[in-house]
Amino acid sequence: MNILQHCEAFRRLLAVLSIVLPLLAMGGAHAAVQDGAPERLDHRRWLSADGGPSQVGAIAHGADGYLWLGTNDSLVRFDGLRFRPQAPEARGAPVIVSSLLARGEALWVGLRSGGVAPLRPGRALARECGPGAPGGVVFGLAQDRRGALWAAAGDGLARRLDGAWRRFGPAQGFDDGGAHAVFVDRDGVLWAASERRLYYLRDGADRFVDAGLALEGAGQIAQAPDGALWLSERHGSRLHRVMPGSGTQATTRIDAPATALAFDAAGGLWIGLMGRGLLHVARPDGLAALAGATRFTAQQGLSSDFVSKLHADGAGNLWVGTNAGLDRFRPRILAPAAFPAGAQNLALAAGDDGSLWGGPRVGTALRLQDGRVQALAMPAPVDSAMRDADGAVWMAGPAGIWRSRGARLERVAGLPAAGARARVRAMARDAQGRLWVSLDKAGLFRHAAGRWERMPASSTRDSQRMPVSALAAPDGWLWFGYRDGLLEARRGGETLRWTTDIGHVTALAHHAGRTWIGGQHGLAWVEAGRLRRLPLPDDGMFDNVYAIVPVDGGAGAGLWLHARAGIFQLEAAELGRALDTPGYRLRYRSFDALGGLANDPHQVLPLPTAVRGGDGRLWFSTSGGVASLDPARLPPAEPGPVAAIEAVSVDGAEVSLASPLSLGPEAQRIAIDYTAPSLDAPERLSFRYRLDGFDTRWLDAGRARQAIYTGLAPGDYRFRLVALNKDGVPSPHEAVFVFRVTQAFYRHPLFLLGAGLSLLAAMWLAYRAAARRAAERVRDRLHERHRERERIARELHDTLLQGVHGLVLRFQAAADMLPPEMPARAHMEQALARADAVLVEGRDRVRELRGGPADTRELHEALASAGDELAAQGGTRFVFVTAGTPRAMQPAILDEVHRIGHEALRNACAHARAGQVSVELAYRRAAFILTVTDDGIGIDPSWLAGPGRPGHWGLRGMRERAERIGARLDIQGAGQKNTRGTRVVLTLPARIAYRRRRGAP
What is the enclosing helix (H) or strand (E) of 770? Predict the structure, then answer.
């Protein structure tokens, strides 16, 4: 043997010793550890630095699920995750809680400053006062079978019955003044301890009896499962044990004053010490059992060695209050295996004889049976393990393929040359005894008759070159799972393939005629050649499934999954419902969120990570070690958590929880804090909520415990909350908070309607005012034009016409002086006649300039007279009609109306060849309408569209006059609305046409 071989042998010897020596030490230590000792329990602590309380001197578990803590500055409510101080009776006043008692829906608080205060929902603490109420420090509280509340206070013993307090003293057999402990045992006997004596009061009796036990400052009283009472002393270091009925008493000394006593659900005694931590006695059948007590101190993780209070709740938790924080101990469902501490992420296989085989990454392969660990010959690392149909255990790694022979492992073969340094991803042994081995990046190989054979690849993709999981089913099929969802089944020369949507296929199992497939994104199964996916919650809990373990019969029947998030049980009944009912929401149970598997699905893990042993126990391998549970001894399923709304704040200010709550329109941000008490696994709770009136569906909030809404519109709202525990079981009832956001007066529909009407009225008034001003401007322009025409008429009459008339007279006088026979006289007579005609025409023009009719009556007469005259000249029949009550019109308007009407009449009589011409004057409230109608030949439409008939100015003049006075002129000729004749309609708004009456607006 050369030196290299010696070195290699020495290295292997050291490796074996590194495993064996810790195992021997562990075996000796294991024998000394009691069942239920603190070291074997799940322990968690909350310190003040972590947001927890300090100086915890009182603990009570309320019916509402909360844990109530009495501290040196406040009463604190704990939901398992958050600590919430309660408001004192006066702002700024400290609340030092010395004792707590939760019975039914009531919580009674004993105060260090004296007195008892009941805690009522939505109200601050306020102590009860009155005759007989305790006024000193309240050391303890108890409730008897009649519902009476007893308070052990520094100033005496008091009872509260039917709302009235009563003191008990020497007259009732309680001889000492102050009381320091009070307790009601299982038989209804009330025990009360003073500073120096112990007394008891039987149920229904009126007088206390001295128990005959001398004390040095009584502490706390607790009752053991065997009925014995244990009593501690605050000043001395003694413990007393009293057996009711027989009167047997025993006393012993311990190494520190006992400040607290409690018995857990398993019957173990817990003793809190002043400065010495905790003592645990598994079987407290007498004081002699204290000799075997297990101690747990701050060195092992206790928040402090100064223990003030112990409390065992109904869920099996033991709570420890210290001067530095709060601790919780509870039994572990998963029991750690006896493998060494460094054995993590083992490939597991279970033997038929109840043994457990594990292949670690460091050291050698291990075998566990009956609590004893055996180191095997196969060196690490071990990548894969399995048990074949014959019950043999196989392990594989770089050291080759190994098989069990009894309690040993023997090497069968080395890895094929193509994958000599590769990691073994999966193994399976077919019905012919051939071994199938998948090597990382090398492919799939088959070993038979001492030779390796490379099997053809199932896919051309590099990621699917080799399987990552394998299974030999009882029906002879070999199943292989690949990356990217490829699933393959082989038997003989037949090969079947499926593509799944669960990602990498990392786990395979056969159960009840179905092949189950676990992967990166959930679970599926194949039955009768059909692949289907199991409807699991899409919350990430079932991502990265690395092991599927079927269990038949018993309470644990169904499928057990080992996933990244932990261990889950899918009960057989639930699986049946999910398989038969489309869309069924499958329920599950989870056991400790230890997980420990890789978050990265591409990371290679030794497989499988979970197996079922020959004794029925389930074994799970994680990064924290190997643990087991017995599926036949599962705790009852937890009920749904009780959802509760803790606080509501509006724009940062907390408001009352009184429902319904009315919020002002100025509310912008509404924050709703909610919770669900869970003292076991608060971090695994999830929540769903919905705000009726805003949300259209339920929102999955996950582990968040606050809902925020901003900018809610006015209206009624209903906030609904549901909590789900770690198994997905919802709350039995919704937590509801009703509120409304009131409407701002300036947003109210009636206000908006009134504002709109007011705006419309203002706009209408503004329009009226603008129209009135426009009409006034038109009237002013018309009046100014009328006055200018009158001035021109006067000037022409007084100057030109008078001067021409004077010249005519003088020429007439000169003509008269000439003889009649002279030709010059004849010419002058002709010129004078022409001058007379000019004067007549000039007067007519001046009369036209001075205006038309002076009032409405004259307008009627002028148009009627003009119509009769023109109709007589043309042989046409004329009709004049008025409608409505005639009203006084503006003078300038009268003149323009007269001229437009006269022009329309002249055109109808001169050019229309009409048989009848009619004029209608309509005096309406909103407008004045002049209508001139004939039944003649009509007007050419081309003349209506343009400036009118070429060489004629009648139509243009009518339009210009109508435009000047702000009127609308409509001329309808043949070929438009009427089949024959012409219709001229002049419309003037009333505000322009009519004169305003006195007093009119």
Answer: helix 749-795
Burial class (CB in 10 A: 0-12, 13-18, 19+), 35: exposed
> Residue 429: which of 473, 373, 464, 374 has the closest Cα?
473
Residue 914 pairs in a beta bridge with: none
Give the contacts of 687 (CB within 8 A, at least 6 positions apart).
Answer: 643, 674, 676, 701, 702, 703, 704, 705, 721, 722, 723, 724
Average pLDDT, the chain: 84
CA distance 323 to 316: 23
Residue 603: both structure tokens together: 């990371």
Q: What are phi and psi of 792, to 5 degrees?
A: -65, -40
**Under a CB-based contact definition with an 8 Å cutoff, are residues 467 and 481 in contact?**
yes
Preceding amide of 608 cis, omega within 30:
yes
What are the tens digits of pLDDT across the range 794-840?
677 667 766 777 777 777 777 778 788 888 877 787 887 877 777 77
Q: Supply the DSSP string of 486-534, one letter for each residue.
A: EEEEEETTEEEEEE-SSSSEEEEEEETTEEEEEETBEEEEEETTEEEE-
- Residue for token pair 């605050």: 234
Any idea which residue has 């399976």 for tokens?
Answer: 428
Cα(143)–Cα(59) distance, integer angstroms: 16
DSSP letter (8 states) at residue 306: B
823-849 vs 802-817: helix axis angle to the nearest 10? Answer: 160
Distance CA 438, CA 486 (A): 15
Give the pTM: 0.68
Q: According to the model, what pLDDT value does residue 467 have?
A: 93
> Cis peptide leading into 639, omega within 30 of 0?
no
Contact status, residue 436 vs residue 430, Cβ threshold 8 Å: yes
Q: In what order do the strands lie in the sheet with 982-989?
A: 877-883, 916-923, 927-934, 982-989, 968-972
Helix 891-911 to helix 856-874 angle (10° resolution) is 10
Q: How far is CA 527 from CA 513, 517, 585, in A?
A: 7, 11, 21
Mean pLDDT over residues 769-791, rounded?
75
Angle at 612 between CA 610 and CA 614, to 5 degrees: 150
Q: Which two tokens stand for residue 136?
A: 């000193």
Of the candidates 500, 415, 405, which has an alpha carbon nearest to the alpha carbon of residue 452? 415
Distance CA 982, CA 544 (A): 94
* 354 SS3 class: coil
Pair of tokens at residue 134: 């305790």
788 Cβ partners below 8 Å, 6+ apart? Answer: none
For residue range 884-903, what is the model confidence (pLDDT) as tens digits?
889 888 877 888 888 888 88
| pLDDT for 801 | 65
Instruction: Output the CA–CA distances (angstroms, integers) from residue 867 to 299, 815, 859, in the order listed.
Output: 128, 42, 12
- Tokens for 326, please give them: 């709060």
pLDDT confidence tier of residue 999, bands split at 50, 70 and 90: very low
Cα separation of 87 and 793, whole Å?
Answer: 101
Transcribe 168-230 into DSSP letters.
E-GGGT--SS-EEEEEE-TTS-EEEEESSEEEEE-TT-SS-EEEEEE-SSEEEEEE-TTS-EE
Phi, psi of 775, rounded to the nearest 5 degrees? -65, -40
- Look at residues 479, 478, 467, 522 and name the one whose alpha carbon lies nearest to residue 500: 522
Using alpha carbons only, what angle is made at residue 595 by residues 315 and 360, rounded to the nearest 5 degrees? Answer: 125
Share of the chain above pLDDT 70, in %: 89
Sign of CA dihedral 698, 700, 703, 707: negative
What angle, rounded to 10 degrees, do the helices at 954-964 and 891-911 form?
160
Q: Which residues contact 798 (CB under 8 A, 6 or more apart)?
A: none
Taken in order 904, 905, 910, 916, the sign of the CA dihedral is positive
